[in-house]
Amino acid sequence: MAAEPLSQFGHDVWWVIVIKTLLIFVILVLLTLFNIWWERRVVARMQHRIGPNVHGPFGLLQSLADGVKLALKEDLTPKAADKVVFLIAPVLATVPAFVTFAVIPFGPTVNFFGQETPLQLTDMPVAVLFVMAIASIGIYGIVLGGWSSGSTYSLLGGLRSSAQMISYEVAMGLALVAVFLYAGSMSTSQIVDAQDDLWFGLILAPSFVIYCIAMVGETNRAPFDLPEAEGELVGGFHTEYSSLKFALFFLAEYINMATVSALATTLFLGGWHAPFWIDHVWAGANEGYWPVLWFFGKVLFFIFVFIWLRGSLPRLRYDQFMAFGWKRLIPIALVWIVAVATIRSISLEGGIDRRWLLIGIGVLAVIFVVLFFIGDSAEETEEVEAVAHPGGFPVPPMPAGGAVRGAAQPLTFENRSPITEPVAATRSAGEEI
What pTM was computed for the model? Predict the structure, then answer.
């Protein structure tokens, strides 16, 4: 890939950079307010409720009212908390969420107040790695917030979150390797240019699916919201937070949703390119400010999927969730990377016919899937055998005669009068006195 797209950056005047930075900040805050309202409306519709509809047109100002309410609440700090770290943790979680959008391309080069500039704050040869690195800093905010609270529940929530996010970052990073192989670059603008004709989400479907699963786990969203499992951890790592510090954690979660959605749009759905090949019919679809509309339309599609999952699926058990990440997603991603690298190498060097290569990979995939399910059944058998013994973990042992089926066994009592015997016992006790 030529380095021409990267040469467009680094030449903006200072006031253009300032305006771009302020626009990204304002857009993310407004998008968060909209996403909160949209989530409440969609989930309400799924549950046959109305949702917010009083404040503002269609209830659009409800999120703003909630934000003002949070700001006016009393700000409490536990006595056992480490006050400095307790204060810094929400900032550590929120700032990286904003910084990651610095390398996200919103559109092509446009006339911006008389200046020709791309609709992107900056870009670099390793822009995707920059996003992954900055996003991982947000984990420190969550871990330190749980540790500094001085609460056992908050500490457990922070530890859960760190293990969860680190585990699914591995799967997410492996899913992106195939994109780098096909695009020939880690620059976000060059990856978008490489999808001018065909989106990577179509030709790299397994990577796309793995990334979509990993991004839900990475953002602690249902059904993977284990750090905030109310049944065992109250509110999780932010249990002891209130007022604006709690609002910062809340803001970071929704901006992280927008970040992973924007990254999925950029890497797999053509970025700001018009969907459904509209540009073949309308030549101006990918020019000017129209691509901004296509970009945010795709981002909102991913956010709708987040909401849909929350309203549909129950929360996983923590051991199931971690086992799925390490035993399923990561091995599948590694096998897929080997397959993509093989196809890419043979295609570039002009080796064997691609049809036979695809057939061979298909046969290997079928064998892998069969072994995948055989392994599942063997694990289930071992688990049942372990549970059958007394003291089995994590489920209580089965009854000695096996599972009870049908109606419960009838209760039997000794043939005695429950009224006369206590009376007789009391009378004899009185006689002794």
Answer: 0.79
